[in-house]
Specification:
- Pfam families: HTH_11 (PF08279), WYL (PF13280).
- This is YafY family protein.
- InterPro entries: CBASS_pafABC_assoc_protein, HTH_11, WH-like_DNA-bd_sf, WH_DNA-bd_sf, WYL_dom.
- The chain is α+β, with helices and mostly antiparallel strands and about 240 residues long.
- The protein has three domains: about 60 residues, Winged helix-like DNA-binding domain superfamily/Winged helix DNA-binding domain (Arc Repressor Mutant, subunit A); about 45 residues, no CATH class; about 90 residues, Roll (SH3 type barrels).
- About 40% of the residues lie in helices and about 20% in strands.
- It contains eight helices and seven strands.
- The chain has a five-stranded antiparallel sheet with strand order 6-5-4-3-7.
- The chain is globular, with a radius of gyration of 22 Å.
């Protein structure tokens, strides 16, 4: 990770610790050397971060004005909280954890008025529902392929349990109320298709990057599917 990202991550780690934590523990958690950690602590302290450390005890981030408060209105705060809680309900374990971390970061830098909206929101997400069908393949496999523009070979079964093998260019994951889907270009159909993740029986990496830019391919899919500004669409049939 970049130096700036590492420094911000270190601050976030310290912010989440209620007691002093040793340099060795921090270095291990951040996957850096203790020498690098000492240098980062010194740099953050020089910038004004209220980090206190004692030999043999460890480091702790004391309360104090270091980062300016995030100026959000009550409505903006509740919109963010509602969205993150919806993600916690509908997302997989990775997104649920990311939503919790994001909420903790936002909470740490909200001004007092927005803090009240965070603690006692006037809007709540609906019931979590009956849960999604079980997936044979973890969603993180698709997420990694999307980020790296990696082609995938999938074994797929349609609504009638008819099997097929596809080579796809994964573009995005969709979280619908009852199912999760992957938006992709299908080489077999030579067209954009959506595949229910619970019907993907197996995945194999092709070791090949698909051509073009994912953002351009996804934009074309949006246009062809006539997806609205809120990202709503109706999945196609395979």
């Amino acid at each position: 990770m970049s130096r700036t990202t590492r420094l911000l991550t270190l601050l976030q780690v310290l912010r989440g610790k209620s007691r002093p934590v040793t340099a060795a523990t921090l270095a291990s958690e951040l996957e850096i050397s203790e020498r690098t950690l000492y240098r980062d602590i010194a740099e953050l302290t020089a910038l004004g971060a209220p980090i206190h450390g004692e030999a043999g005890v460890g480091y702790v981030l004391r309360s104090g004005l270091f980062l300016p408060p995030l100026m959000l209105s009550a409505d903006e705060t509740e919109a963010i909280v509602l969205g993150l809680r919806y993600v916690d309900q509908r997302g997989d374990e990775f997104l649920s954890k990311a939503a919790a971390n994001a909420l903790a970061k936002i909470s740490a830098v909200l001004d007092p008025a927005a803090q009240e909206a965070l603690r006692n929101p006037t809007v709540l997400p609906g019931p979590a529902g009956y849960g999604y069908p079980q997936n044979a393949v973890e969603l993180n496999v698709f997420r990694d392929a999307i980020r790296h523009q990696a082609k995938l070979h999938i074994d797929y079964a349609d609504a009638n349990q008819v099997p097929s093998q596809r080579r796809i260019w994964p573009l995005a994951l969709g979280f619908l109320n009852e199912v999760r889907i992957i938006v992709a270009w299908c080489e077999l159909r030579s067209a954009y298709r959506t595949f229910r993740t619970d019907r993907i029986l197996a995945v194999g990496e092709q070791g090949e990057r698909y051509p073009g830019r994912r953002s351009d391919l996804l934009r074309t899919w949006y246009q062809r599917m006539q997806v609205d500004d809120a990202g709503r669409f109706t999945p196609d049939k395979n």
